[in-house]
Amino acid sequence: MRLDWVDHDLDGRVIRSSLTEAEAAELARLAEGAYAVEIGSAYGFSTVHIARAAKWVVSIDPHEDLTSYEALIANLRHFGVSGRVVAACLPSAVALPLFRSGGFDLAFIDGDHRELEVIRDIEGCLRLLRPGGVLAIHDYGEISCPDVKAVVDEMGLTPKRIVDTLFVTTKEQA
Protein backbone atom coordinates (compact mmCIF):
# COMPACT_ATOMS: atom_id res chain seq x y z
CA MET A 1 0.00 0.00 0.00
CA ARG A 2 1.19 3.52 -0.73
CA LEU A 3 -0.04 6.45 1.33
CA ASP A 4 0.23 9.95 -0.03
CA TRP A 5 0.01 13.15 1.95
CA VAL A 6 -3.46 14.56 1.37
CA ASP A 7 -5.60 17.39 2.70
CA HIS A 8 -8.26 16.09 5.09
CA ASP A 9 -11.34 18.13 5.86
CA LEU A 10 -11.89 17.80 9.59
CA ASP A 11 -15.06 19.61 10.59
CA GLY A 12 -14.44 22.31 7.99
CA ARG A 13 -10.73 22.74 8.69
CA VAL A 14 -8.13 21.26 6.34
CA ILE A 15 -5.18 19.36 7.85
CA ARG A 16 -2.54 17.66 5.73
CA SER A 17 -1.62 14.07 6.69
CA SER A 18 -0.68 10.67 5.30
CA LEU A 19 -3.09 8.91 7.69
CA THR A 20 -6.21 7.46 6.15
CA GLU A 21 -9.63 8.28 7.57
CA ALA A 22 -9.89 4.67 8.83
CA GLU A 23 -6.53 4.95 10.61
CA ALA A 24 -7.53 8.25 12.22
CA ALA A 25 -10.84 6.77 13.40
CA GLU A 26 -8.99 3.77 14.87
CA LEU A 27 -6.60 6.07 16.73
CA ALA A 28 -9.55 8.00 18.18
CA ARG A 29 -11.15 4.73 19.30
CA LEU A 30 -7.92 3.52 20.90
CA ALA A 31 -7.42 6.86 22.67
CA GLU A 32 -10.79 6.86 24.44
CA GLY A 33 -10.04 7.93 28.05
CA ALA A 34 -6.31 7.23 27.60
CA TYR A 35 -3.08 8.88 28.59
CA ALA A 36 -1.34 8.87 25.23
CA VAL A 37 2.09 9.53 23.78
CA GLU A 38 2.52 10.27 20.08
CA ILE A 39 5.76 10.27 18.13
CA GLY A 40 5.37 12.29 14.96
CA SER A 41 2.58 14.84 14.82
CA ALA A 42 3.38 16.90 11.72
CA TYR A 43 0.39 19.27 11.32
CA GLY A 44 -1.71 17.61 14.00
CA PHE A 45 -4.26 15.45 12.18
CA SER A 46 -3.47 12.42 14.35
CA THR A 47 -2.96 14.60 17.43
CA VAL A 48 -6.42 16.15 17.14
CA HIS A 49 -8.06 12.73 16.69
CA ILE A 50 -6.23 11.34 19.71
CA ALA A 51 -6.74 14.42 21.88
CA ARG A 52 -10.48 14.60 21.25
CA ALA A 53 -10.84 11.19 22.92
CA ALA A 54 -7.91 11.03 25.34
CA LYS A 55 -7.48 12.42 28.84
CA TRP A 56 -3.99 13.69 28.07
CA VAL A 57 -1.55 13.57 25.14
CA VAL A 58 2.18 14.08 24.89
CA SER A 59 3.00 14.80 21.26
CA ILE A 60 6.68 14.47 20.30
CA ASP A 61 8.05 15.76 17.01
CA PRO A 62 11.27 17.68 16.25
CA HIS A 63 9.35 19.88 13.76
CA GLU A 64 12.41 20.60 11.67
CA ASP A 65 10.04 22.68 9.55
CA LEU A 66 8.66 25.10 12.14
CA THR A 67 5.65 25.81 9.95
CA SER A 68 4.42 22.31 10.89
CA TYR A 69 4.78 23.19 14.60
CA GLU A 70 2.88 26.44 14.11
CA ALA A 71 0.14 24.56 12.23
CA LEU A 72 -0.01 21.91 14.97
CA ILE A 73 -0.50 24.54 17.69
CA ALA A 74 -3.11 26.40 15.61
CA ASN A 75 -5.02 23.16 14.96
CA LEU A 76 -4.95 22.16 18.64
CA ARG A 77 -6.35 25.59 19.57
CA HIS A 78 -8.97 25.49 16.82
CA PHE A 79 -10.33 22.14 18.02
CA GLY A 80 -10.22 23.15 21.70
CA VAL A 81 -7.81 20.41 22.76
CA SER A 82 -4.63 22.41 23.42
CA GLY A 83 -5.21 22.18 27.18
CA ARG A 84 -4.87 18.39 27.01
CA VAL A 85 -1.79 18.25 24.77
CA VAL A 86 1.85 18.86 25.58
CA ALA A 87 3.65 19.45 22.28
CA ALA A 88 7.32 18.60 22.77
CA CYS A 89 9.38 20.02 19.92
CA LEU A 90 12.16 17.46 20.37
CA PRO A 91 13.49 14.31 18.72
CA SER A 92 11.98 11.19 20.28
CA ALA A 93 15.46 10.00 21.36
CA VAL A 94 15.67 13.05 23.63
CA ALA A 95 12.02 13.20 24.76
CA LEU A 96 11.10 9.56 25.51
CA PRO A 97 13.62 9.07 28.34
CA LEU A 98 12.11 12.06 30.15
CA PHE A 99 8.88 10.18 30.92
CA ARG A 100 8.05 7.68 33.63
CA SER A 101 7.83 4.00 32.73
CA GLY A 102 4.32 2.59 32.66
CA GLY A 103 2.58 5.97 32.62
CA PHE A 104 0.76 5.69 29.30
CA ASP A 105 -2.20 3.69 27.99
CA LEU A 106 -1.53 4.35 24.29
CA ALA A 107 1.61 4.95 22.27
CA PHE A 108 1.33 5.96 18.61
CA ILE A 109 4.49 5.87 16.49
CA ASP A 110 4.70 7.77 13.20
CA GLY A 111 8.13 9.36 13.50
CA ASP A 112 11.42 8.68 11.77
CA HIS A 113 10.93 5.63 9.55
CA ARG A 114 14.55 4.47 9.38
CA GLU A 115 15.46 1.12 10.94
CA LEU A 116 17.42 2.19 14.02
CA GLU A 117 14.98 4.98 14.84
CA VAL A 118 11.98 2.65 14.48
CA ILE A 119 13.64 0.18 16.87
CA ARG A 120 14.43 2.95 19.35
CA ASP A 121 10.89 4.36 19.21
CA ILE A 122 9.25 0.96 19.69
CA GLU A 123 11.51 0.06 22.61
CA GLY A 124 11.04 3.49 24.17
CA CYS A 125 7.26 3.36 23.81
CA LEU A 126 7.02 -0.17 25.19
CA ARG A 127 8.86 1.07 28.30
CA LEU A 128 6.34 3.89 28.68
CA LEU A 129 3.23 1.71 28.31
CA ARG A 130 1.43 0.30 31.31
CA PRO A 131 0.63 -3.44 31.30
CA GLY A 132 -2.11 -3.95 28.72
CA GLY A 133 -1.24 -0.67 27.01
CA VAL A 134 -1.74 -0.31 23.27
CA LEU A 135 1.05 0.27 20.77
CA ALA A 136 -0.01 1.61 17.35
CA ILE A 137 2.58 1.91 14.59
CA HIS A 138 1.85 3.78 11.37
CA ASP A 139 3.17 2.89 7.91
CA TYR A 140 3.34 -0.87 8.44
CA GLY A 141 3.48 -2.22 4.89
CA GLU A 142 3.65 1.25 3.32
CA ILE A 143 5.95 0.77 0.34
CA SER A 144 7.97 3.95 0.82
CA CYS A 145 8.72 3.03 4.47
CA PRO A 146 9.99 -0.58 4.26
CA ASP A 147 11.97 -0.41 7.51
CA VAL A 148 8.79 -0.08 9.58
CA LYS A 149 7.40 -3.48 8.55
CA ALA A 150 10.85 -5.09 8.60
CA VAL A 151 11.53 -3.95 12.18
CA VAL A 152 8.05 -4.85 13.47
CA ASP A 153 8.31 -8.31 11.92
CA GLU A 154 11.90 -8.83 13.08
CA MET A 155 10.93 -7.87 16.64
CA GLY A 156 8.21 -10.51 16.50
CA LEU A 157 5.38 -8.15 17.35
CA THR A 158 1.97 -9.79 17.04
CA PRO A 159 -0.82 -7.65 15.60
CA LYS A 160 -4.10 -7.38 17.45
CA ARG A 161 -5.38 -5.83 14.23
CA ILE A 162 -4.14 -3.90 11.22
CA VAL A 163 -6.14 -0.99 9.80
CA ASP A 164 -4.74 0.04 6.42
CA THR A 165 -1.09 0.62 7.50
CA LEU A 166 -1.80 1.06 11.22
CA PHE A 167 -0.35 -1.93 13.11
CA VAL A 168 -2.02 -2.28 16.52
CA THR A 169 -0.76 -4.50 19.32
CA THR A 170 -0.66 -4.56 23.11
CA LYS A 171 2.36 -4.48 25.36
CA GLU A 172 1.88 -8.18 26.18
CA GLN A 173 1.80 -9.14 22.50
CA ALA A 174 4.91 -7.09 21.75
Element string (H = helix, E = strand): EEHEHEHEHEHEHEE
Amino- and carboxy-terminal Cα gap: 23 Å
How many β strands by DSSP? 9
Mean pLDDT across residues: 96
What radius of gyration results from the CA coordinates? Answer: 14 Å
Number of domains: 1
Tally of individual helices: 6
Shape: globular
Please identify the top-level CATH class: Alpha Beta
Which strand order does the major sheet show?
Answer: 5-4-3-6-7-9-8
So, the CATH homologous superfamily?
Vaccinia Virus protein VP39
Low-confidence stretches: none
Strand content: 25-35%
Helix content: 25-40%
Coarse structural class: alpha/beta
What is the CATH architecture descriptor?
A: 3-Layer(aba) Sandwich
Main sheet characteristics? 7 strands, mixed
CATH topology: Rossmann fold
